[in-house]
Design brief:
The protein is an alpha/beta fold and 476 residues long. It has two domains: 284 residues, TIM Barrel, CATH 3.20.20; 104 residues, no CATH class. 40% of the residues lie in helices and 12% in strands. The chain is built from 18 helices and twelve strands. α10 links the parallel β9 and β10. The protein starts with a helix and ends in a 5-residue tail after the last helix.
Amino acid sequence: MHWHSLICRLGWRYTLDTREVMEIEEPFLLEEMFPHKMPPRVLFSSPIYEEIDGNLVKFDPQEALERDIHISDTTFRDGQQSRAPYSAKQMVDLLRFLSRLGGPKGLIRQTEFFLYSEKDRHCVEKCQEEGLPFPEITGWIRSDEGDLALVKRMGLKESGILTSCSDYHIFFKLRSDRKKILNHYLSVVEKALEAGIRPRCHLEDVTRADIEGFVIPYVQRLMHLSDQAPADLKVKIRLCDTMGFGVTFPGASLPRSVPKLVYKMVHEAGVPHDCLEWHGHNDFHKVHINAVTGWLYGCNVANATLLGFGERTGNPPLEAAVIEYMCLTGKTKGADPRVITEIADYFAKNVNEEIPKSYPFVGANFNVTRAGIHADGLNRDERVYNIFDTSSLLGRAPRVAITDKSGVDGILHWVNDFLGLEDEERVGKKKVVKIARWVVDQYDVHGRTTAIGDDELEALVKEHLPDLYEKRPSSS
């Protein structure tokens, strides 16, 4: 029995060494961690140790952040396996968004396309005509020598090659055995190198594979081929968490441990950091954290899709990866996060894709509060209830939706925001009393169950604050 429990059972009294509250004149806002003008920083206090094969392995976060970590995109490949295909125009538009979002330094470095149908190839050609330096256009093919001809025909310098690596796939899907499939994969990679195509081997279902018995021997042979190839044809490895089985928990076993998988690839299979990539799925709600963990432990590349659209439960959301990069490094690398809001608007208006209202960064309500106490905090200082400066970084100011929970503070925030009033110009609570009374009556007297619409609130402002209404910024 723990000593604390024993003392309690015996009724003994004891006194802990309690500390006095430290009174200060200025608030301690941890601004290094919460700069507000940028997303909150992730600061690591010390190296991390992970047990691998019975050994404690030191992980230095600072070293990880000094590497060239970046993002690759699969919106036009995996992202099209969960929805209706994009038109050629939509692909071109989205490619332009990706280029602007990732910036001239290529935070979003590459994107990949199907090549099988005439429509697929037409879409690639239209995107190639844009001549954008980033993201680089790459292909995706099966492990088939005939498919390499499509890559060559399209003039692509790199292509993903599907090389399934778990016994579930080798025995049940491919109806083969390990040695036969290994030799087949290697022959296709050799043909790609001979054709001047940079192979990116997709290790499908790696989080259910025999890492020691198949994956490491296979990847070691790929690295041997890579060592013999020209510098611009180095073989890349994509770790594909096809079913979302990957986990980040310390001490978790292979093949599910993301840290251990990455460690094995780097230290035992010999994969350079810049040739290693993580691709995940969200079946267990771990898709984003797994991708970020891959970054930290040795994958320079995190593969993602716009808004997380991907087969079944989706892939890592690309917009979240951009924000996460800023959280980890405190830098933008030339990225323009305001484009995230433009992308969301484009999906809603031009792709007819409904985005959940509470979806982070892009949902209609992601920075909208309905609670009066939260609105009061926003009125006093935006930092109290807004995750970062969403006005500057995303082009979306924090808003308040008016319901029976909003109170006068919520209505006050809505009115001042609508009128464009700031600092000493903002109206006080006395000015909105009649509007607040009307809102309360809607619920208490008339039994309303829906939120008050912006058009209704605008009419109330026009009625009760006519002078301010006429001077609002949107008036002509």
